[in-house]
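Contributing: when you submit paired examples, paste them exactly as shown. First protein:
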Amino acid sequence: MAKQFQTRPSQFSPERQIERSESKTVAALERLSEAFRVLLWRAGKEHTISPIAVQILTFLRHHKLEFCTVGYIAQEFNMTKQTVSDAILTLERKGHIEKVVSAADARVATLRLTAEGKRLAEQVHGFAEPIEAAVAALGEDEQTALLAGLLSMIRSLNDADVISTQRMCFTCRFYEEHHSGSERYCHLLQMPLVLSGTETEKTALVRLDCEEHQAR
């Protein structure tokens, strides 16, 4: 007797999207991920490098040296070390990246941009500007709601081990969800955190990428 298989509903079914707004949202997010892929591909094609190389150059351009290792970058982009190593080797051969071996431990090496690499990083690191422009076109309340929803989703996906978030407030030991009546609080800065808007002398912004982050 043939085994019966139960068909699982798909978020990409038009019928399901009519019935469930969360399925429609998933499909919309997938379209946005396509936009990132297209923009990375265009930036890479213009400078004859891979989309992964664009991401690596952008990361090295904006982060301090202690984060610039193969292992850390692999976790940052949720890729294998081998995939990142292959991309870095190509960038090394092209003269865009160089390795700095630790004097204390020859097995440890950090990555830094060469002068040519810095010039290239300056040309490609704005690849997502069209997406930022689309966000900027939203109203202030829409932007705040969108950011709140996305941060919450990222947090949930991190908790479910789908993705890793390296330097997000919600995964930091200095972060407290509820503190003396405040919804969010940073014990490093010793001030409440707000989701968006302008920082004041009494508040700071919730961060997705904080260099002072210390994992719980």
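Second protein:
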Amino acid sequence: MKRAMALTEEMVARCHRVIIDTGPEPGLDYLDESDYAQIIDVAMAMRPPGPIWLFAYGSLIWKPEVEHVEERIATARGYHRAFCIHQTRWRGTLEQPGLMMGLMRGGQCRGVAFRVPDGEPAEILSRLIRREMTAKPPTYLPTWLKLETVDGPLSALGFAVNPKGRTFAGKHSDEHVAHVLARACGHMGSGAEYLFQTVRNLEARGIHDRHLWKLQQLVAQELSAGE
């Protein structure tokens, strides 16, 4: 039976604010072309044979950076989703920071594996890496994950959290995460929208993440209490 989310599109719409992107934060040490070249070279050297798969567990599910020709429901063991990334841009601001998800060690994570078109592997990896990695030390690390699917195992590129990353925020209580997501917004949208779209797109694929389901209920409660 299909479950009805407590967090609704109408609630999410109320969270939206027009935020002007002020651009890269001054004073940060950003990755340059030589840094990207080195990261891509390492990723290519560790790339398993065969087509390139991408493991999506959050916004990449509903807003992928690259085209794909196949998708499979997949489980990454040894990692779990967590709102552990501090954000002062995109879906937050310096004045009201947001939180984003990352893949942290421990547990397991069900998500979607996308097979990208055959082409130039380095170019595909470059687009993905540049989307996920900007400042030093990077918050995400490109990692080749071993995934389980109903069609058998496969290896896919994922972006695991770097505990030494600049914006790593550690784990927070569900109540704190819900409080932040109900209020934070950046030029790319609100934290409530990020959670809503992720849960909705997971559910549409038959993936029920109990933790995210609880979070969307808590965010809905926060928004209802503020009416």
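If you have annotations for the second protein, write them as plain sentences, like these:
The mean pLDDT is 94.
The two ends are 30 Å apart (CA to CA).
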